[in-house]
Design goal:
The chain has 118 residues and is mainly β. It has one helix and six strands, in the order E-E-E-E-E-E-H. It has a six-stranded antiparallel barrel with strand order 1-2-3-6-5-4.
Length: 118
Amino acid sequence: MTQERRRSNRMDINVRIELNSVRSKDVADKVTAEAFDVSVVNISKDGLAFTTKETLQMNTYYNTTVLLWTKEKFQTVIEVVRMEKYGDETLYGCRFIGIMPADQLKIQIYEMVSEMEN
């Protein structure tokens, strides 16, 4: 059995968010659209995972607005750090870049509440 490397627990969430590519002059970006929707499947205070049919490159960055369970939103940049292919879709694991501590706290509080309910 492989040891989990994540620093924080992931919680299931079912929302759609829009990603906007952060372009770099020295990296060839193969994303077919400037902005596209993805389906978020889980989230933690450190990052999120989503599925999409788009082909994304490792270590690329995207601006997004995350919608939480409480209908609160926050803006952040994410970095693609992991990918797993599932049929015609890929599951991407991302870490938050520059997330505000108050937004991380919102996720942590929801995690504590959901653990108490289970």
